[in-house]
Amino acid sequence: MIEWFQELPSFQKTYWILTGISTLFFLFVLVTTLMGAEADDFDDVDAEIDADSGAGFQFFTFKNLVAFFTIFGWSGIASIDAGNTKATTIIISIACGLLMMFVMAALFYYISKLTSSGTLKMHNALNAIGEVYLTIGANRSKTGKIQVKIQGALRELEALTDHHSDLKQGEIIKVVHVTANGVLIVAPDNITIEPLTIEPKNPKLLC
Fold it and tell me: Burial, 188: exposed, middle or buried (Cβ in 10 Å; 0-12, 13-18, 19+)?
């Protein structure tokens, strides 16, 4: 193996070294991402690179650069084995690397979109109308539960109230505040319903 590597031209050696290192990084990033245990350091590097570049869609990130050099290397090696010139090999490598960067950027973008859309954001509950499910104690004395529609789905959430009396099960409430730590503060929804009056068709019947 060592003899084989030593006999390679310097141009091909460079590609093999770059490919080996970038492939190891790529496999590590891929495995940790799939396992949901992505390192915070990688996220910080991604954020710094993206902030420096000012590019949207997170195109220039650490993960994407690793993917670029991985595909850059392997496509270059394949091009060399196919007998292409150095210039052609470099052009093919760059084109394949950029294409891989775009695919990675699109993949992580849509994954992040799906993740964020499924995450409950408590501030979306502000001003929502709901119903008490478990009694809520007056003046924040006891945490209860409400049923309220947030982000298109009916949810059962814990809530407190500043009202002077308990809010009983079945009462209609309104979310009036969401605290910094995501606790819902509710109050009775004072909806007044006007009595329905029916005018008689023949007023003489009332005489």
Answer: middle
